[in-house]
């Protein structure tokens, strides 16, 4: 690897949780929404314009988490993971922001593929009834997102505690990291800033939606309509199709 600050991820293929059948995934890259949920995005054509074309590594604003390779010493220099986060959720966005804003880069290597069994539901409990995903998201927002942390789809969390972040703030200062506005401008310009934190997402418009026999709602052949099985009040979002039903299995009614 020419630059030890380069972090690479494979394409994550899908292994069915029911049959162990293997399904190749399309070429997509990581993103997020203002609710701080990870999502998959189509790769902008400009990212595939290198000498290797679609076979070459391309930049990804975020990673899915769990499947990545980086220099071990660099991982510790960059601050490892946030020890104040609990259990699961948000850590993949936090390390993605940190990589980009603190001088590194995050690439997906399309010729590298790893099969993964996606669970149908979150297997982790909530100790003391705490929403650990919200707790973790608040920590990353207050450390890394600057003024954009207020552009949240969950304004009720603004007065919620998230623990001591002084160590992580000091880490950002010590590493001389860039602003989150720089990240949006230079790494993820496709991300549309919401003008009002209370503004709801625009209504979903069916332009190319298809419904296979397995009950999925598939857009552009690669993204499926997915609903959180932890926070049922959250709006549906587009995620990579995992083929295991559960959060991506839908039935169409007459009012759709």
From TrEMBL:
GO terms for cellular component: Golgi apparatus. The keyword NAD does not apply. Residues 57-117 form the Galactosyltransferase C-terminal domain. Keywords: Disulfide bond, Transferase. PROSITE patterns: RICIN_B_LECTIN. GO terms for molecular function: Notch binding; polypeptide N-acetylgalactosaminyltransferase activity. It comes from the Eukaryota. PANTHER family: N-ACETYLGALACTOSAMINYLTRANSFERASE, POLYPEPTIDE N-ACETYLGALACTOSAMINYLTRANSFERASE. This is Galactosyltransferase C-terminal domain-containing protein. The lineage of its organism: Eukaryota, Metazoa, Chordata, Craniata, Vertebrata.
């Amino acid at each position: 690897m020419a630059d030890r600050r380069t972090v690479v991820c494979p394409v994550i293929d899908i292994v069915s949780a029911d049959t162990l059948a293997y399904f190749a995934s399309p070429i997509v890259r990581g993103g997020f929404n203002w609710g701080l949920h990870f999502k998959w995005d189509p790769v902008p054509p400009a990212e595939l314009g290198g000498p290797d074309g679609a076979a070459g590594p391309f930049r990804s604003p975020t990673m899915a988490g769990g499947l990545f390779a980086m220099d071990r010493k660099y991982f510790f220099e960059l601050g490892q993971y946030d020890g104040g986060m609990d259990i699961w959720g948000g850590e993949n966005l936090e390390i993605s922001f940190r990589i980009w804003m603190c001088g590194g880069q995050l690439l997906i290597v399309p010729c590298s593929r790893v099969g993964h069994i996606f669970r149908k539901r979150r297997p982790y409990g909530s100790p003391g009834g705490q929403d650990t995903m919200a707790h973790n998201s608040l920590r990353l927002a207050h450390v890394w997102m600057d003024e954009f942390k207020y552009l949240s789809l969950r304004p009720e969390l603004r007065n919620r505690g998230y623990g001591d972040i002084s160590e992580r703030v000091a880490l950002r200062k010590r590493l001389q990291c860039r602003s989150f506005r720089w990240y949006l401008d230079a790494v993820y310009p496709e991300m549309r800033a919401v003008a009002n934190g209370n503004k709801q997402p625009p209504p979903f418009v069916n332009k190319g939606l298809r419904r296979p026999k397995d009950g999925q709602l598939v857009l552009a052949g690669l993204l499926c309509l997915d609903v959180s099985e932890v926070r049922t009040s959250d709006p549906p979002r587009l995620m990579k199709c995992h083929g295991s039903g559960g959060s991506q299995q839908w039935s169409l009614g007459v009012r759709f």
